[in-house]
């Protein structure tokens, strides 16, 4: 592989920093494959950067899981900041701007912070012997460096893929969370649910709390925690929630949790955050294990204000959700409101070719009257016509196929009436395209 040319910021004859866009393009050239599971290379560069010699924050919470990572992390961030903590987060992927991946005190990292981080990664990577990094690995190291500079009370880290071998896992978490386990990324994690659970449980550390955010996790998750003598706090056992009308259709709910000392704590009359209540309960449990003394009114305010772009995000008649596996699609289907009389429930769907399209379509099918399929470009893209064939074979009605998400919006706009609603789903790429548009309203 030929040696890549770094942005001008690393050229000895230049004093002009490269742009963030230039850095991101450059990082895509550093490694022969996009995903290369393993920690040795990224840990070696982290060691050179000094990231492993001291904690990056007073407390670190790492979140793994098939679904629910982003919403759990967002609620922890909101609650902790309302309590006066200085919080930094690392999440992936982003929707519109790369800067979304790193936040400090609720603000996205600016270009100069990220450029400084990438320069530090590159300087460390190029030391002898030179080490090759994937785009995600370099981005993770940059994010960790940015967080380490910020004098944080709490760092919240979201696993990108799996857990045990994800780049985030070079950091020893004080608390590990596994939200849900389902099949996704089968090319890398396989289809054995027990093994997937063990991989995600790889973020747990000996004698440090392991929070299990679902009552239907495979037994391998708890077993992995017990094997390293990590205290286990499981939803439905150590902590729980209750509400009239069920967890996914409530206006107020109550929470009961447990401190590290075994003290039972309760909070009542919490607002529905518009996100899974299992995840909200998990967020509260993790924070109380971190030592945070929860104030009921502060928690209510934080849950009322929390927002996660691309998760059941309503823009007029349009609902945007990045769900791309059957478990996520089932949640979306349950949360969609009933249609006004005479209305139609459209779905604009675009998916990558390594996702379980049949499972997603089947979960949504009972709630969708009209489908519009869109093509996603790129190596992992899936043609709209292939999605349409799957929908028809499962009994759905396809109204239109478009060669891009933007074209799909235009096709729906021609038919949209005030009583219609549109769900946009299937991929981060599909939702991201629409977030950069002005969506038509009837």
Automatic annotation (TrEMBL):
Residues 310-428 form the Mur ligase C-terminal domain. One of its GO terms (cellular component) is cytoplasm. Pathway: Cofactor biosynthesis; tetrahydrofolylpolyglutamate biosynthesis; Cofactor biosynthesis; tetrahydrofolate biosynthesis; 7,8-dihydrofolate from 2-amino-4-hydroxy-6-hydroxymethyl-7,8-dihydropteridine diphosphate and 4-aminobenzoate: step 2/2. GO terms for biological process: folic acid biosynthetic process. GO terms for molecular function: ATP binding; dihydrofolate synthase activity; metal ion binding; tetrahydrofolylpolyglutamate synthase activity. It comes from the Bacteria. Keywords: ATP-binding, Folate biosynthesis, Ligase, Magnesium, Metal-binding, Nucleotide-binding. Its EC number is 6.3.2.12, 6.3.2.17. SUPFAM superfamilies: MurD-like peptide ligases, catalytic domain, MurD-like peptide ligases, peptide-binding domain. It is an enzyme of class 6 (ligase). It catalyses: (6R)-5,10-methylenetetrahydrofolyl-(gamma-L-Glu)(n) + L-glutamate + ATP = (6R)-5,10-methylenetetrahydrofolyl-(gamma-L-Glu)(n+1) + ADP + phosphate + H(+); 10-formyltetrahydrofolyl-(gamma-L-Glu)(n) + L-glutamate + ATP = 10-formyltetrahydrofolyl-(gamma-L-Glu)(n+1) + ADP + phosphate + H(+); 7,8-dihydropteroate + L-glutamate + ATP = 7,8-dihydrofolate + ADP + phosphate + H(+); (6S)-5,6,7,8-tetrahydrofolyl-(gamma-L-Glu)(n) + L-glutamate + ATP = (6S)-5,6,7,8-tetrahydrofolyl-(gamma-L-Glu)(n+1) + ADP + phosphate + H(+). Residues 63-208 form the Mur ligase central domain. The keyword Nucleotide-binding applies. Gene3D superfamilies: Mur ligase, C-terminal domain (3.90.190.20), Mur-like, catalytic domain (3.40.1190.10). It holds the Pfam family Mur_ligase_C. InterPro entries: Folylpolyglutamate_synth, Mur-like_cat_sf, Mur_ligase_C, Mur_ligase_C_dom_sf, Mur_ligase_cen. PANTHER family: DIHYDROFOLATE SYNTHETASE-RELATED, FOLYLPOLYGLUTAMATE SYNTHASE-RELATED. Belongs to the folylpolyglutamate synthase family. Functions in two distinct reactions of the de novo folate biosynthetic pathway. Catalyzes the addition of a glutamate residue to dihydropteroate (7,8-dihydropteroate or H2Pte) to form dihydrofolate (7,8-dihydrofolate monoglutamate or H2Pte-Glu). Also catalyzes successive additions of L-glutamate to tetrahydrofolate or 10-formyltetrahydrofolate or 5,10-methylenetetrahydrofolate, leading to folylpolyglutamate derivatives. This is Dihydrofolate synthase/folylpolyglutamate synthase.
């Amino acid at each position: 592989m030929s040696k890549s040319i770094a942005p001008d910021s690393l050229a000895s004859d230049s004093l002009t920093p490269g742009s963030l866009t230039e850095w991101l393009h450059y990082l895509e050239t550093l490694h022969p494959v996009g995903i290369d599971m393993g920690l040795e290379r990224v840990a070696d560069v982290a060691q050179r950067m000094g990231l492993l010699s001291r904690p990056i924050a007073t407390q670190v919470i790492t979140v793994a899981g098939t679904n629910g990572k982003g919403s759990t992390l967002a609620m922890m961030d909101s609650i902790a900041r309302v309590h006066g903590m200085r919080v930094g987060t690392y999440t992936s992927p982003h929707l519109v701007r790369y800067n979304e991946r790193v936040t400090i005190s609720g603000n996205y990292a600016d270009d100069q912070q990220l450029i400084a981080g990438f320069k530090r990664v590159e300087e460390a990577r190029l030391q002898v012997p030179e080490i090759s990094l994937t785009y995600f690995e370099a981005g993770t190291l940059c994010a960790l460096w940015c967080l380490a500079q910020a004098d944080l009370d709490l760092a919240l880290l979201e696993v990108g893929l799996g857990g045990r071998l994800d780049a985030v896992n070079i950091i020893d978490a004080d608390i590990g969370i596994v939200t849900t386990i389902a099949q996704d990324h089968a090319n890398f994690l396989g289809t054995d649910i027990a093994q997937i659970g063990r991989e995600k449980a790889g973020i747990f550390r000996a004698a440090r709390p392991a929070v299990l955010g679902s009552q239907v996790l495979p037994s391998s998750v708890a077993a992995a925690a017990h094997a390293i003598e990590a205290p286990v706090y499981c939803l439905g056992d150590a902590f729980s929630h209750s509400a009239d009308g069920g967890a996914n259709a409530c206006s107020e709910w109550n929470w009961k949790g447990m401190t590290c000392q075994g003290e039972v704590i309760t909070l009542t009359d919490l607002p529905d955050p518009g996100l899974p209540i299992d995840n909200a309960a998990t967020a509260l449990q993790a924070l109380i294990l971190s030592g945070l003394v929860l104030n009921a009114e502060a928690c209510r305010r934080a849950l009322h204000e929390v927002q996660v772009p691309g998760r059941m995000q309503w823009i007029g008649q349009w609902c945007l959700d990045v769900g791309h596996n059957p478990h996520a699609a089932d949640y979306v289907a349950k949360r969609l409101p009933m249609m006004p009389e005479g209305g139609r429930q459209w779905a604009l769907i675009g998916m990558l070719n390594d996702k379980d399209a049949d499972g997603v379509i089947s979960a949504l099918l009972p709630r969708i009257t009209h489908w519009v399929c869109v093509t996603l470009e790129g190596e992992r893209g899936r043609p709209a016509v292939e999605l349409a064939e799957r929908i028809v074979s499962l009994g759905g009605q396809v109204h239109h196929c478009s060669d891009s998400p933007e074209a799909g919006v235009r096709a729906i706009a021609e038919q949209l009436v005030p009583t219609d609603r549109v769900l946009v789903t299937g991929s981060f790429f599909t939702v991201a395209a629409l977030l950069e548009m002005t969506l038509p309203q009837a």
